[in-house]
């Protein structure tokens, strides 16, 4: 529904496209709804990320509507008023399920939308049979009138006209009424949507209001989301005045509603959807876009407000209690971010799901990922080298001596540097259906430090069968470590085409990569992927990650060398580390630095967290991005720590922002840590 004539056509467009997306989600089994295909018009198969997004939206609305019908089932009469209903199938679904014995459904949308929908219902036997078309022709704004279904063509921003038409259609102010606004009010001017919210509270003594829309406009994902709607000429007006869930709650309580609860979609999915149903949705299609899914969910909320209801209407009570991080994260300070001016516009560094590694002090190799090459989005084949000269990084072209160009095409792999002439690439994937991609040797010419490598030779590693399983994974970690003076690589966790999360590990002896059995004691960390891993004092530090039920983890483990093997030890952090994943990590002088990532704590995005490994003290720093002209997305990025300069170089990062377009950080960013890494 729109906020005036200029953008009403664009806003209707958003309604059409959401009908098509819901229809695609139904076709894949996410939602059970046989009426969507009759109403959506065109069919188009959407991506799994879009399916999940529309699933959670449909689920949130259904959850609240069915709760309202259940709580009022003993009452003689109730009514539902769906604002900006578009081509939604709600009435037909409820009628088909036998849930409308004493409830009339009113739908309101722009006149041309209401006329189209009325014509569609009359034309489709399956739809008209359910309504029981009374044969009466629609009158004026009432485009369709059945016993328990009325379809009205009115602009929602014209409140007096809306009131007159509803009265004419038979709406009864004295009976319990549920108002539904599913991504509708955000498109209206705030004075008009506020007036509508207040009108509903003032004119209906027993009322419930269900709203689903966007939130958090100012973080990086929120900025991409806002830009998308602006480009469609259907700006989200509500976000400026009501930027978070608390503001929306205050809005309703201040406009005549006595009770109001709000949940973002991460919380709703975790708390209001039964575990077996979560599991069902997780396994419907191959899926590997966790970051974008959780970011989408933290930028949409469902709100339930009520007044005069006995007993009170509280559909958003969690069925399971999940520890919430109440209040904002306590910030110890900020870290300035600056774009690498001389690297702006360099092709090959706009990518995500890649890996960057310091080969020698002034040389960084970046491989793989998904990004932009020659104006096209694709999996990146070409390696990229950054070299530092006279204090400045510059991009160096290297030729890849590689038997098969596709070998380098992979996401979520690792690269470990074994010497300044040899590195090892482990695992990764092409599509989420792929079985994992084995290992590659990367060999650099033996030249003096002064000159840049002009070529990298790439060779397939022939692994012994015992070590093969170590390579068939992605979103894992590979860490250099020592045991009894010998060098090993420790491959841990990740996921595979068969297992959504892995908790196993391998010790690979270098350089022959033979799989070595070394005893490990102590309780093993729970399975995870997208965690971080760093070498420390001969052992390995594992932090965060995404666990079995797609829930972020806040644990930190040390795999510590003992006399006859290793032992897992938990590092207690205080305050407790906010659970996160898709971050990067570095160790410096007894401190673990976690960079970026994704967490469910919606009031801010992760910056840099510093954990003192001796005391467990955990400090969060926000990243000051005022000098960047674009949103900095710190997930699926890579980072390189430069200890002499006390700087972090962040390369790439970003991803597919739901249906709002792909955002790739355009250039590397330097984070200056000198103020937070003052020596002990």
User: The CATH topology of the largest domain, please?
Assistant: Neuraminidase
Rg (CA only):
28 Å
Strand order of the largest sheet: 3-4-2-1-5-6-8-7
Helical amount: 10-25%
Q: Into how many domains do the coordinates divide?
A: 2
Q: How far apart are the termini?
A: 59 Å
Assigned CATH superfamily of the largest domain = Kelch-type beta propeller
Please state the structural category.
Answer: alpha+beta
Give the CATH architecture of the largest domain: 6 Propeller
Just give the CATH class of the largest domain. Answer: Mainly Beta
Q: How much beta, percentage-wise?
A: 25-35%
Which residue ranges are poorly predicted, with pLDDT under 50 across at least 5 consecutive positions? 1-6
Protein name: tRNA wybutosine-synthesizing protein 4
Organism: Vireo altiloquus (Black-whiskered vireo)
InterPro entries: Gal_Oxase/kelch_b-propeller, Kelch-typ_b-propeller, Ppm1/Ppm2/Tcmp, SAM-dependent_MTases_sf
Subunit structure: Interacts with RNF144B/IBRDC2.
Molecular structure report:
- It is built from 15 helices and 39 strands.
- The protein has 680 residues and is of the alpha+beta class.
- Strands 3-4-2-1-5-6-8-7 form an 8-stranded mixed β-sheet, sandwiched between helices.
- The termini are far apart.
- It is an enzyme of class 2 (transferase).
- Pathway: tRNA modification; wybutosine-tRNA(Phe) biosynthesis.
């Amino acid at each position: 529904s729109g906020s005036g004539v200029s953008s009403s056509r664009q806003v209707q467009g958003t309604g059409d496209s959401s009908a098509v997306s819901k229809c695609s989600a139904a076709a894949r089994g996410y939602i059970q709804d046989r009426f969507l295909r009759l109403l959506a018009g065109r069919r188009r198969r959407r991506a799994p990320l879009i399916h999940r997004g529309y699933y959670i939206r449909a689920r949130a609305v259904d959850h609240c509507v069915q709760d309202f019908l259940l709580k009022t089932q003993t009452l003689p009469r109730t009514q539902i008023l769906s604002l900006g209903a578009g081509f939604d199938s709600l009435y037909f679904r409820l009628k088909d399920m036998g849930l409308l014995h004493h409830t009339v459904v009113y739908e309101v949308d722009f006149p041309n939308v209401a006329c189209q929908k009325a014509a569609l219902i009359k034309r489709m036997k399956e739809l008209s049979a359910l309504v029981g078309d009374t044969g009466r022709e629609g009158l004026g704004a009432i485009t369709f009138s059945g016993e328990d279904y009325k379809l009205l063509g009115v602009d929602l921003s014209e409140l007096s006209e809306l009131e007159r038409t509803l009265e004419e259609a038979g709406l009864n102010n004295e009976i319990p009424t549920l108002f539904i606004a599913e991504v509708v009010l955000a498109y209206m001017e705030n004075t008009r949507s506020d007036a509508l919210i207040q009108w509903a509270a003032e004119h209906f003594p027993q009322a419930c209001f269900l709203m689903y829309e966007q939130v958090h406009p100012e973080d990086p994902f929120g900025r991409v989301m806002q830009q998308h709607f602006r480009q469609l000429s259907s700006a989200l007006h509500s976000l400026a005045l009501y930027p978070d869930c608390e503001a929306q709650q205050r809005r309703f309580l201040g406009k005549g509603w006595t009770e109001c609860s709000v949940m973002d979609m991460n919380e709703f999915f975790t708390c209001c959807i039964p575990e077996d149903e979560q599991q069902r949705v997780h396994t419907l299609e191959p899926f590997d876009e966790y970051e974008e899914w959780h970011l989408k969910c933290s930028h949409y909320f469902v709100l339930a407000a009520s007044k005069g209801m006995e007993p009170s209407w509280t559909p958003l009570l969690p069925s399971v209690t999940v520890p919430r991080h109440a209040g904002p994260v306590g910030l110890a300070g900020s870290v300035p971010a600056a774009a690498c001016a001389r690297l702006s516009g360099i092709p090959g560094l706009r990518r995500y799901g890649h890996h960057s590694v310091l080969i020698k002090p002034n040389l960084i190799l970046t491989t793989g990922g998904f990004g932009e090459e020659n104006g096209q989005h694709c999996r990146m084949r070409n390696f990229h080298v950054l070299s530092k000269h006279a204090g400045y990084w510059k991009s160096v072209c290297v030729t890849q001596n590689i038997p098969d160009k596709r070998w380098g095409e992979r996401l979520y792999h690792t690269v470990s540097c074994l010497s300044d002439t040899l590195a090892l690439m482990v695992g990764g994937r092409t599509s989420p259906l792929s079985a994992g991609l084995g290992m590659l040797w990367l060999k650099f010419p033996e030249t003096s430090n002064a000159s840049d490598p002009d070529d990298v030779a790439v060779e397939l590693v022939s692994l012994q069968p015992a070590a093969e399983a170590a390579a068939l994974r992605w979103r894992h970690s590979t860490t250099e470590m020592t045991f009894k003076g010998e060098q090993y690589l420790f491959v841990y966790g990740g996921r595979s085409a068969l297992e959504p999360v892995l908790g196993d590990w391998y010790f690979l002896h270098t350089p022959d990569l033979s799989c070595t059995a070394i005893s490990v004691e102590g309780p093993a960390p729970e399975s995870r992927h997208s965690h971080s891993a760093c070498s420390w004092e001969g052992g390995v530090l594992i932090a965060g990650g995404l666990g079995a039920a797609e829930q972020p983890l806040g644990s930190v483990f040390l795999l510590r060398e003992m006399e006859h093997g290793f032992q897992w030890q938990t590092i207690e952090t205080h305050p407790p580390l906010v659970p996160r994943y898709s971050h990067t990590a570095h160790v410096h002088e007894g401190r673990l630095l976690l960079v970026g990532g994704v967490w469910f704590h919606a009031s801010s995005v992760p910056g840099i967290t510093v954990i003192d490994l001796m005391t467990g003290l955990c400090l969060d720093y926000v990243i000051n991005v005022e000098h960047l002209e674009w949103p900095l997305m710190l997930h699926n990025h890579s980072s390189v720590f430069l200890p002499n300069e006390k700087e972090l170089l962040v390369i790439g990062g970003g991803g597919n922002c739901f249906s709002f377009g792909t955002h790739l950080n355009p250039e590397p960013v330097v984070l200056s840590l000198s103020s937070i890494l003052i020596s002990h």
